[in-house]
Description:
There is one protein chain. By secondary structure, this protein is mainly α. The chain has two domains: about 35 residues; about 110 residues, no CATH class. About 75% of the residues lie in helices and about 0% in strands. The chain is built from five helices and no strands. Helix 3 packs antiparallel against helix 4, helix 3 packs parallel to helix 5 and helix 4 runs antiparallel to helix 5. The longest helix has about 40 residues. The N and C termini lie far apart (about 120 Å).
Amino acid sequence: MHASHEISKRSEAVTGSHRLTKSNKTFHRYRINSIPCLKKTLPSAPTDDDRAWLEHYREEQRNTPVRLEETAKYLAGIISISLTIFIDKRPANLQSWTQGTLTVAAVLWMLSALLSFAVLFPWRYRYREDSPADVRRAHRRVVRVKMVLLVCSVMLFIVALGIGVFAFAKGFAAAPPGAAG
């Protein structure tokens, strides 16, 4: 008798917890449906304008590698022009510490140029041509690699430019007294 009494208490507890769970579901469903922003709505069919925007987005995503390459071309041009100016137009009266500083800046400029050229390089990406999912994955990988290379190139260029400007601004030796005249 004791064992059966214990079993019935357990079954009541399970039934009670089941009721509690069921009432929680009802309460939860009521609360969600009573809040307008949380109601589940079925998506409506896209309009022509929606389809045009979706196609525009897809086309922009497809053209991302080309835009990154165009940006890398412009950056490579700016890097080469600024590097040429800083190397060719060194004044004679720079202090000795600026020579080393400008060398560091030139090395950073060269690394920046190499990274921007790496964006332009036609890397080989492996994918199965008959699998759209694999092509999408390869495209995302191309965009990610090119973006990382371009961002690193820009950061190195900015650091090199800052070092170069600092060296030129602070590196001039004072003219000896009586030399100016």
